[in-house]
Amino acid sequence: MTRSVFRRPRRGRLLLSAAALLSMLSAAADPPADAVGAQQGYPPLGTEVMVPDLESLADQAAWAETRRRYREAPSGPSVDTPSRPSVPAIALRPAEPIEPPPVTPLRIMLDGYPSPRHAALLVARERRLFASRGLAVTLATPADPDVPSKLLAASRIDLAVARQPLLHLQVDRGLPLVRVATLVAIPLSALVVREDGSIETPAQLAGSRIGHADIDSRDVLLAALKRGAAIRDDEVETEALHFRIGDALREGRVDGVIGAMRHLLPRQLADEGLATRVLRIEELGIPLHDGLVLLANRDHLAPQRDAIRRLVAAIEEATAWIANHPEEAWSLMANAEPGLDTAVNREAWEMVRSRLSLSPAALDQGRYRRFEEYLFEAGLIQERHPVSRLAIDPGAAPR
Predict the structure, then answer these.
(1) pLDDT reported for residue 313
(2) Residues whose CB is less than 8 angstroms from the CB of residue 151 and which lie 6 or more positions away in sequence, other chains included
(3) What is the DSSP string of 250-304?
(4) Quick one: three-class SS letters along 74-85?
(5) Are 192 and 260 in contact (CB under 8 A)?
(6) Where is the SsuA/THI5-like domain (predicted)?
(7) C-beta separation of 130 from 124 below 8 A
(8) 115 and 155 share a domain?
(9) Which residues, other chains included, contact 103 with Cβ-Cβ below 8 Å and sequence gap of 6+?
(10) Containing domain of residue 316, as a range?
(11) pTM value?
(12) CATH number of the domain encompassing residue 297
């Protein structure tokens, strides 16, 4: 008889052993059947007695039990593979929410109303270049152009947009400010005077009334022009105009304004019927300097350095995109800031974008050193400050 290829269960062996032992005991206790028949006179049966094969029956029972167990398994029988565990039909509770990546908030205050000179910041925001670097950037507009640097020094904001002359002036006055990026590489400020007036050079400022938009225009730019022309302070009357410089010049309350944006005010006044004359400050003896910079609070620079580095990288990417897509950039800004979409700003866009800094983090140490020396020699600041106190490249390793 063919035996099973499956391994005999241990219980089957025990049954076989027990059956064999019983057979031996029975054989020892009882006489042979033919002997008994002979004694009792019964004839032989003449047939063969069939004794069941207990070992085979045990094998079949074990095989049947194995098949039953496999059929009742959750995933059925498989070769050399354990059965799959049962899976619950329903979830007992909702999945744990995925935590969003950390976001660093940064509040930046502009130096005035949104303008083409702020293009890198506006485009970076609208193209989500800040957000893609884990930054939540807010751009705020000041009520007074002198406010941003003061709020920055008081830790009320994270960064401020300003001009390089203001940085030198405020550092000399003890404010913890430091340049971390350049937005516009050359000056945009100018001395704008009425064309029907008598002022054609700084030497003719004596006896005039000059308005100014901010303190660095008065205490750095105008002061430098007066000293260069040997004009005493009391020979020029000044007036703080803030954002009203155009109104004052048009109404004739002042003869000129210092610190006016050369790409905006002359065209604006021309549209209103007033002709003006523009005197570019870098052509009047004032050293070349950065037209628009981004300032941080030095006291908070260490914990903010990584966020500032990411911010400046986004600004650099935005500036490159503007250079490659100037018309798309203008449309993007105009849609985001409808008040910016004016004929004056549209005309200024070509001139301004050509002056945007393509490497905002890069620091021209010679330029800052020369300007600091110029201000000190002119008596406009009390002491010389090292470049490291005035400006840094946020991507460079801290010293």
Answers:
(1) 98
(2) 109, 157, 160
(3) HTTS-SEEEEEETTTHHHHHHHTT--EEEEEGGGTTPPP--SEEEEEEGGGHHHH
(4) CCCCCCCCCCCC
(5) yes
(6) 116-329
(7) yes
(8) yes
(9) 134, 135, 136
(10) 105-183+291-322+351-390
(11) 0.75
(12) 3.40.190.10
